[in-house]
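Class prep. Protein, please:
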Amino acid sequence: MFSTDDFARYTQWSGIATLIFAFITIVGFIFKWGIRFRLAGATGFMLVVTGGLFPLSLAPITRTVIPGAIRYTLVFDNGASQAVIAIPPKVTVSELDATLHQAASDLFSYGRLGSREDNRLTIRARTILHPEPGLSIPLYLGQVKRSLSSREDSVMEIDIYEDNFAKLPSSDG
């Protein structure tokens, strides 16, 4: 994954290339070269590329890693206040807790719509049970509610459904 230092270096080189294109374009217009308008287009494109890389060099691109979290799959996200993640059936309570923290961190975005009165993002964790061939049953194991407006939410509500853990297949066999 690229860091802000990488993007700063790319922005610098892109800026230098833009200045070179601009110089060649000016020379092309002075000497009335046939490709002068193509050079103007290339210079404009380089300005757009440089302008796009510059903000990426300012904002830190980091992903918080929660120890003990397991891999999950996002199966539903309405882009506003609700999301559902899928986790494997062989999960422990501590792994689920860490995974809910991880999903709350990963799915936070300032661009989410705050359509509910409580202005909270609800992420539910579920697994699929197969009690017999041809039958699949979704089983919700927990959920986390976090703020839609603050990245550092110190009052996340995590609910783990202990009674549903009893329905999970045992790890013996």
